[in-house]
Design brief:
single chain; about 270 residues; alpha/beta; TIM Barrel; 8-stranded parallel β-barrel; 12 helices; about 50% helix; globular
């Protein structure tokens, strides 16, 4: 059976639509809330869910997602807890792809083979390990592939041709293009620059390309909707959740409203 990520991108490509990938940190502000918000993201139009594995030193993440990791860790969230959230989500939704995003340390502590096996059994479809470049990916990649999981890699505006070649060797599912230099949520995306770089990278990459790190609004999503195959939004969603941390009903409503606006902006841009 094809991986859910491949299926979803194939379906969207056939329809001429841009994928909407939404990120939340597992366990922020609590495990039950994470599962409910994941369902809200899907209801509002998300095509793929990126589920963050909390880590004490999230070097690629800006302050918004760093705070989310801190809150989740304070609530006792662990890698095993993340997989439990995936299993709980799968009790009601077997179709939406889930990508686990995090850092190597917790995965290494669990063991590559054990992690890959348990992630696949839980219902995950892909893994993005921020601090594992293709040069160091062979061992963990072999375990992920053996269990049917796709490994997503980051590329940046200044990625060399040799780095892209390395990504091509191991990557599957899609490639995550970091649209700004810096950490998540730090800057706004420059649409002209993104368009140029994506066009260049497509000469080497055959996989779908998702654009993230600088998408903060429906307007910025629409600006690059025709350049990438997916738009990835995380910090803006976490910020909404943080702002309404004391009122779950409002939190869920505001998250759904924002994601629906993103979905409409992407569809509108493609239609135009």
């Amino acid at each position: 059976m094809d991986n859910r990520i491949d299926q979803r991108f194939s379906e969207l490509a056939n329809d001429g639509r841009c994928a909407l990938i939404t990120y939340v940190t597992a366990g922020d502000p609590g495990p039950d809330i994470t599962t409910a918000i994941m369902h809200s993201l899907v209801d509002a139009g998300a095509d793929v869910i990126e589920l963050g594995i909390p880590f004490s030193d999230p070097m690629a993440d800006g302050p918004i997602i760093q705070r989310a990791s801190e809150r989740a860790l304070a609530e006792g969230m662990s890698l095993r807890g993340v997989l439990k959230i995936v299993r709980r989500f799968r009790e009601e939704n077997m179709t939406i792809p889930i990508v686990l995003m995090g850092y190597l340390n917790p995965i290494e502590a669990m063991g590559y083979e054990r992690f890959a096996e348990q992630a696949a059994v839980a219902g995950a479809d892909g893994v993005l390990i921020v601090d594992v470049p293709p040069e160091e990916a062979k061992i963990v990649n072999s375990q992920l592939v053996a269990h049917g999981l796709e490994q997503i890699f980051l590329i940046a505006p200044n990625s060399s041709k040799s780095r892209i070649d390395g990504v091509c060797e191991f990557a599957s599912g899609f490639v995550y293009y970091v649209s700004v230099k810096g950490v998540t949520g730090s800057k706004s995306v420059d649409a002209l620059e993104v368009n140029q770089h994506i066009a260049e990278f497509r000469q080497q990459l055959s996989l779908p390309i998702g654009i993230g790190f600088g998408i903060k609004s429906p307007e910025s999503a629409a600006a690059v909707a025709c350049s990438g195959d997916a738009i990835i939004v995380g910090s803006a969603i976490i910020e909404i959740m943080e702002r309404h941390a004391d009122d779950f009903t409002t939190m869920r409503r505001e998250v759904e409203s924002f994601v629906a606006q993103l979905r409409g902006a992407l569809d509108g841009a493609r239609a135009a």
